Amino acid sequence: MSGRSRWPWARAAPPSGTRWSSDPSRRRRQSWPPRGRRLSSSLSVRTLAAQVFLLQALIMLVLVAVAASALVVQGRYDAERSARDRSLAAAESFAHAPGTALALRSPDPTARLQGAAEQARKGSGVDFVTVLDEHGVRLTDPAPALIGTKAQGVGRAAAGETFTETFHGRPADAVRAVVPVTDASRRVVGMVAAGIEYANVGDVLNQQLPMLLGAAAGALVLATGGAALISRRLLRQTHGLGPAEMTRMYEHHDAVLHAVREGVLIVGGDGRILLANDEASRLLGLPEDTDQRHVRELGLGPGLTRLLVAGEAVSDEIIPTGGRLLAVNIRPTAPYGGAQGLVATFRDTTDLRALTGQAELARGRLSFLYEAGMRIGTTLDIRRTAEELTEVAVPRMADIVTVELLDSVLRGEEPTSAVHEMRRTALRASRPGHPLQPVGDVIRFVMADTPTVAALRRGRAVLVADLDTARDWRAQDPEGARRALDHGIHSLISVPLRARGVVLGMVNFWRGADTPRFEDEDVAVTEELVARAAVAIDNARRYSREHAMAMTLQRNLLPLGLPEQDALEIASRYLPAQSGVGGDWFDVIPLPGFRVALVVGDIVGHGLQAAVTMGRLRTAVLNFSSLDLAPDELLGHLDEMVTRLDSQTATDDDGEPLTGATCLYAIYDPVGGRCTFSRAGHLAPAVADPQGRVTFPDLPLSPPLGVGGHPFEAGELDLPEGSRLVLFTDGLVENRGRDIDEGLEMLSSTIARADPSPEETCRALVETMLPEHPSDDVALLVARTRLLDPSCAVTWEVPFDVTAVPRVRKEVSRRLAEWQLEESAFTTELILSELLTNALRYGAPPICVRLLLGRTLVCEVSDGSNTSPRLRHAATTDEGGRGLFLVSQFADIWGTRYAARGKVIWAEQNLDRTTAPDASAMFDVLDL
Asked: Using one digit for the tens of pLDDT, what is the confidence trace for 384-422?
């Protein structure tokens, strides 16, 4: 700027003979003292250097003193903190020691803990380790006189809180930590206090204090010497510059000041302008005679004038002035020899402000889309995902948002090409009383010129900025359009909801009277928002389809109903995990001789693979049980099968090994009430006697299936009639908030309180043990035992002699007559004769015959041989081989099972009909 502006300190610095030109282009030194003055100038510079050195030394002294004080304070703080940490470590170690809680509950805790507390105190280096009871009374203390007195300020520890503090009181001020001691039920049974007396906390600091002070003195000496060397070097480098050289420097500074592209305004303490560079004159429109005029006289506007008069520091405050947006920075300053003033700088940010506004708008849209990506698709539920889209868009994007989806999509099926009819799935409005159709209504798109149909046809968003002037959107529903306009809706964006190139539905964004109309920039945002929602909805659709398939598969793999049998009264439950299908299963399998097999198993993992694996194992158990194997033998065969499947799976990258599957197999015999168990890595069942007492029997435990190399063992229990047998998987008793021991204890108490019926026991266990959405699937089987009436079971020991057959046959006929089964006598005698004759001819002693009456009539013949008979077609010349054929014709079902010694051949007849064998086939076999 041209005029009289100048640096205020530039006028004060040169000697009296120097003058400055008011014009920057002609600014020069008008006169200068003679060359002889140079020596005195150099001396004054040396004096100034000496004064600067003294000032630097004083500053160094102050800094070193402050630093030393800070080190002392920090050292004391560190010492106290170290004391707290040591005290807390000692107290926690002693409180959590295995025998502390037991000793506190002993008759004389002081005798048991005093010696241990002293050893802990010496080992940890603290001044005291004191054990208190739950009321705060000292049980141990380094000072025996304090034992029995009550400690102060330990109420928080008695309430179960661990804390450290600086304690002031009796017997001494100390830094201490107090830790509660709890028993197995987490009840506070005592406390442990450990600490260091406050007088000993600063011992280390006192030892280090001379070293700190010595270091501070050394630092002061080094800093002072360094300042002296630097001052001397600077003086040597400047060669004692005088006023001429300083004036030249000021001229250079003044030229730079007027050349910069940032306005600079220097204002004195009285509010008058001392200097304004050229950029400041241009930005503020200052007149030629700006120097020494008050800022209020320059017409700078109220905002800028207020800032300059206030004299307070300001950073990048935007002030509108003369059609520009200026960024103002103000800093107070004290000129040489003058009063308090300030320096203000100005930058023109008009263009930058416009760019910043656009950037902020873009940033806001990106932030909105990012938030939408985080909030949409949090679940795999189709309807909930559509609702999340409306929640995100209202009110930030629109006043009303509707989502319509195809019915096939809502069912989880593949979307169809017929998109003229959709169902409103979600709707959200910023205020109540909207005029649009509610959720659940069918929305039809039949008019070809409506915005929604146009959007579906084009495959991209359609904008209707002004609904008042648009006519095409009213064609389909004129009355509904009128209600929408009366409500204040004035702008619409229709966006097709597409995923993988297929239309899933439609999303409509509406704005009302209090919101500006949609613009072209909003279309891109809505399309991006809907595209993200479409992916989430399609993922939810595909998950729903696969989940439904998996659930259907699992339901078909599990028992559809419990079989009819008279040995047990049974109730069951299966609850899938929150994540969906799993691998838990149960089964009830009737066996010959009125016996019943109970099975519960658990496959590691969840999902379709676990369900399929469960089906394979359940099928294998059904097949093995048809062989009437003992529980330990059956699990052995099942283990071999799992091992083979694992070896096949190892070559398939997509397969998951079965190792880790567990299974419990039990066989209950109602004749004697004996139950045989074998378990592979599974939890033992709970057994409740008729009086309600619950136990967990100690049954042999074998490794999980697929581990291999270990034989399976079996255990037996005699169960009185009316006992309840509870078989379950670990999901019933174990979850994230409860360990297995707590779960078993809760299970026991629930069974004891429940009604004796299996159905009520199942209901009580599910309601008590499981949350609304369990994290693991659960299989539960409750069976109440029944005993076969002793009068319905009869046993005969048969001598190893063929002549004994007629006698046994007569006794069987007499028993059948007592049971009023004369019609079955002939068939039964025939079956018995054939089975008994085979045992005597091909078997080994001892031989035993048993007849059981229940829902059916069972005839069993056992012998000591392991040789199993087989049904075959006898040749014409064969003398024998036709007995088992007769048995198979007269009996409804027959078979062989192996016992610990020998075998049992059994035949079963239904009592509700008379067996009518094929006579012609019998004659052919018998050659008649």
From this structure: 999 999 998 888 888 999 999 988 888 888 887 777 788
Q: Mean pLDDT lowest for which of 167-171, 295-299, 354-358?
A: 354-358
In this prediction the pTM is 0.53
As a whole number of angstroms, the distance between CA 455 and CA 452 comes to 5
**% pLDDT > 70, the chain:** 82
Calculate the alpha carbon distances from 524 to 404, 464, 679 in Å.
Answer: 20, 14, 63
What average pLDDT does the segment 568-581 reach?
82
Q: What are phi and psi of 816, to 5 degrees?
A: -65, -35
State the Cα angle at 849 between 843 and 855, rounded to 5°.
Answer: 130
Helices 883-890 and 825-842, axial angle in degrees (round to 10): 150
Closest Cα to residue 619, out of 593, 585, 573, 650?
A: 585
Query: What confidence tier does 621 reach under pLDDT thresholds 50, 70, 90?
Result: very high
Predicted confidence (pLDDT) per residue in 768-792, tens digit = 998 877 878 889 999 999 999 988 9
Task: Report the run of H or E that residue 830 belongs to, with start and end.
Answer: helix 825-842
Say if residues 522 and 493 touch (Cβ distance below 8 Å).
Answer: yes
**pLDDT of the residue at 674:** 94
Decide: 861 and 835 in contact? Cβ < 8 Å: yes
Cβ contact 828:859 at 8 Å: yes
**Is the pLDDT score of 81 beyond 70?**
yes
Q: Are 719 and 569 in contact (CB under 8 A)?
A: no
Report yes or no: 851 and 794 within 8 Å, Cβ to Cβ: yes
Number of H helices, E strands in the chain: 24, 31
pLDDT at 632 over 90: yes
Q: What is the pLDDT of residue 33?
A: 38
Please count the residues of the chain: 928
**CB 785, CB 668: distance < 8 Å:** yes
Report yes or no: 53 and 231 within 8 Å, Cβ to Cβ: yes
CB-based burial label for 169 (10 Å; 0-12, 13-18, 19+): exposed
Would you call the peptide bond into 395 cis, given omega within 30 degrees of 0 as the criterion?
Answer: yes
Say how many C-beta atoms besides its own lie within 10 A of residue 159's C-beta: 9
Residue 318 scores a pLDDT above 50: yes
Separation between Cα atoms, residue 498 and residue 541, nearest integer Å: 13
- The one-letter code for the residue type at 290 is T
DSSP 3-state of 707 = coil
Rg (alpha carbons) of the chain, rounded to whole number: 49
Task: Name which of 159, 222, 153, 221 is nearest 193 in CA terms.
Answer: 153
- Residue identified by tokens 């070193």 is 64
- According to DSSP, the residues that pair with 511 across neighbouring strands are 491
- Tell me the torsion sign for CA atoms 423, 425, 428, 434: positive
pLDDT at site 26:
39
| 491-538 residue pLDDT tens | 889 899 888 888 888 999 999 878 888 888 888 888 888 889 999 889
Q: Please name the amino acid found at residue 377.
A: G
Instruction: Look over the chain and give the mean of its residue pLDDT values, rounded to a whole number.
Output: 80
Going from the C-alpha of 661 to that of each of 397, 614, 640, 842, the distances in angstroms are 52, 9, 13, 42
Residue 254 has pLDDT above 90, yes or no: no
- In 3D, which of 592, 596, 588 has the Cα closest to residue 566? 596
User: Collapsing DSSP states into helix, strand and coil, what is residue 626?
Assistant: helix
CB atoms within 10 A of CB 707: 17
Give per-residue pLDDT as tens, 96-109. 888 888 888 888 88
Q: List C-alpha distances in Å: 479 to 297, 463, 474, 485, 580.
A: 66, 21, 8, 10, 46
Handedness of CA 299, 305, 308, 313 (dihedral sign): negative
Query: What stretches of 260-291 show up as alpha helix (H) in DSSP?
Result: 278-284
135 is written with which tokens?
A: 């009321």
Q: What gap in Å lies between CA 606 and CA 287, rounded to an integer? A: 83
What is the 8-class DSSP label of residue 567? Answer: S
DSSP reduced 3-state for 533: helix
